[in-house]
Design a protein that fits this description.
By secondary structure, the protein is mainly alpha-helical. Helix content is 67%, strand content 4%. Strands 1-2 form a two-stranded antiparallel sheet.
């Protein structure tokens, strides 16, 4: 499968200095960085009022969600690395994920924009470095994942579905929430 990705010069400036194991890993890491940078850039421009806006249906504040994405990179990458070694992701349920997200929201309700964006940058750079170090063989390795009904998923799929997609997913939700807020404000 071939992907065409527009190169963002800012991504290359923050790219980790790790050795690239393969072109696929590098492309995955680039896409992870691009999504995270887009979230960081957008979050950096928000007013205090927008930072405190609650996201409909989700209930968390925009700032808490930005910090959440940043906080999840180490866990998401660790699970992907387990798959890269052929180890299953076992015993983790969506109820566990929701409980973790609730605790995080309470503990970080007053997170500052500066702290959240700094953590996001630190953690996505580390996540991308870990992804870049993976070989094609590791990306192709599959094991069961309890979050996905014990389906045998490849390491690459797990990275794409979790660490890579996470920033894009939440950025879209934040933009939608802020767009609705702006539309309802006279």
């Amino acid at each position: 499968m071939t992907s065409v990705i527009a190169q963002d010069p800012a991504v290359n400036q923050e790219r980790s200095p790790s050795v690239t194991a393969g072109r696929r890993a590098d492309a995955l890491a680039d896409r992870l960085e691009q999504g995270a940078r887009a979230l960081a850039t957008f979050a950096s421009t928000l007013t205090d009022a927008k930072w405190q806006t609650r996201i409909p249906k989700d209930g968390r504040k925009v700032g808490v969600v930005v910090h959440h994405v940043a906080s999840m990179y180490p866990l998401e990458i660790q699970l992907a690395l387990n798959l890269a070694q052929g180890q299953p992701v076992a015993g983790v349920t969506w109820d566990d994920v929701h409980a973790l997200n609730q605790r995080h929201a309470v503990e970080h309700d007053d997170v500052t924009r500066e702290a959240a964006v700094a953590l996001l940058r630190t953690n996505y750079i580390a996540a991308a470095a870990a992804v870049r170090a993976l070989t094609d063989e590791q990306l192709d390795r599959a094991a069961t994942v309890s979050l996905n009904d014990d389906a045998p998923l490849t390491c690459q799929f797990f990275i794409e579905d979790h660490a890579l997609r996470h920033s894009y997913h939440h950025l879209a939700g934040i933009k939608a929430a802020l767009g609705r807020r702006a539309a309802s404000t006279p």
